[in-house]
Specification:
The complex is a heterodimer. By secondary structure, chain A is an all-alpha fold. Chain A contains 15 helices and no strands.
Chain lengths: ~325, ~90
């Protein structure tokens, strides 16, 4: 319907209602919100409502089966004084920092390798992607058996190769080894995402840049440093942003491998929050744990998105 | 010149080997574990990297006939189909 020929008010009143509805729908101001409404309702129900409930719980003394009262920031302050929570706080940063560092370095290397001319290229790319496709809970069970204190295949291989002294470490029962095991599984699981996304970024770099750099006498090292890396920056920023969020809120791996132990040394916010909130029933405190880093994470997301936008446009 | 190109190509594959082992070994080990007999699984002196005492489908038959595995599979499929359809509808 042509927009320029809108009937006058008097003429419009005489039109049948179906035509009038159609005319209304033709206007972007009506149609746009109408299209958005279903998605908006879903978001309100499934995201906003639970989030607000969690926000309320975190400032209340909610306990399963008891009425709750508003108690202000007491939960947050009390948590900060608890050793177990401090340990969790520290674990989360160690876990996320080390995991992401490994995933980034290994991911870039793997992406560079996958970008070469290879035999069985598709097969190799598929194989590399496998850990990411399998449900984490199931593959972590496999790792659990690999790290088992008595029948660990990791220890057996290490001993056979002469790297470890028999009987080898008890991976899931010793403080630092447990953290190493949890990080290993997280890297194993997250590496494909890094590699494939960075590979996509690599493929998108124009060949002319390399030719120009080569003509100017740049070797492989400086071509990587002055062409590849700067061109990859936006992709890297996005990948690191996503991975930071997912690694911080990781639950499956720790819950299945160590259950947070030994002595809370591998608890992350999600697992500790579950333990306090659901296993001990202190819902208010549990909600406070899961929301503890919300302000910080929001700032990180904001800063990184700003950085990405600046890089892209 | 062609020899050098070939050598780099082979080198690339060699460098990929550790990544592939890291990515695929857990699956290999899971497969082995699923096919080993309990006797061998709990034998501390057995070599864990191969099946020596003969493979068995015991664990699979147990899973299929003595547990509700088929129901769980059906549940998974149901959730997958419904969730994908719903979110597909919502975002299209």
């Amino acid at each position: 319907m042509a927009i320029g020929t809108l009937p006058t008010t008097a003429a419009r009143a005489r039109l049948p209602w179906r035509t009038r509805v159609r005319e209304m729908l033709d206007r972007e101001r009506v149609l746009g919100p109408l299209f958005i409404t279903p998605a908006l309702i879903l978001i309100l129900l499934l995201v906003a409502y639970p989030f607000c409930v969690a926000l309320y719980f975190s400032v209340s003394n909610a306990f399963i089966g008891r009425p709750s009262h508003f108690i202000g920031l007491t939960n947050f302050i009390r948590l900060w004084d608890a050793d177990a929570f401090r340990q969790t706080f520290q674990n989360a940063f160690v876990f996320t920092g080390i995991s992401i560092a490994f995933k980034l370095v290994l991911g870039i290397s793997l992406a560079l390798l996958l970008n070469q001319q290879l035999w069985f290229k598709r097969l190799i790319r598929g194989a590399v992607l496998l850990p990411w496709v399998i449900p984490t809970a199931l593959s972590t069970l496999g790792w659990w058996w690999m790290f088992n204190s008595l029948y660990s295949v990791v220890n057996w291989t290490g001993i056979a190769m002469g790297i470890l002294d028999p009987p080898g470490p008890n991976w899931l029962g010793q403080k630092y080894y447990a953290m190493a095991a949890v990080i290993t599984v997280n890297v194993w699981r997250g590496l494909p995402f890094f590699a494939i996304t960075i590979l996509a970024g690599l493929v998108a770099i124009p060949k002319e840049l390399y030719e120009a750099a080569q003509a100017d006498g740049a070797g492989p090292g400086s071509r990587f440093w002055y062409v590849t890396l700067p061109m990859l920056k936006p992709v890297l920023a996005i990948v690191v942003l996503f991975s930071t969020i997912f690694t911080f809120s990781d639950f499956n791996i720790v819950y299945i491998l160590t259950h947070g132990g030994p002595i809370n040394s591998t608890h992350l916010f999600a697992t500790y929050s579950r333990m306090i909130g659901l296993e001990s029933g202190r819902i208010g405190e549990g909600a406070a744990i899961s929301l503890y880093l919300f302000p910080l994470l929001m700032f990180v997301v904001w800063a990184q998105l700003r950085f990405v936008r600046k890089q892209v446009y | 010149m062609s020899g050098r190109v070939l050598r780099t190509k082979v080198l690339m594959h060699v460098l990929l080997v550790p990544f592939l082992i890291f990515a695929l070994f857990p699956f290999y080990h899971m497969l082995l574990t699923s096919l080993k007999q309990d006797r061998e699984l709990y034998d501390r002196h057995a070599v864990p990297l191969v099946i020596k005492q003969g493979p068995t489908l015991e664990h699979y038959t147990k899973l299929l006939w003595e547990t509700e595995f088929l129901t769980w599979t059906k549940n998974s499929l149901l959730v997958t189909v419904l969730a994908t359809t719903a979110s597909g509808r919502a975002s299209s």
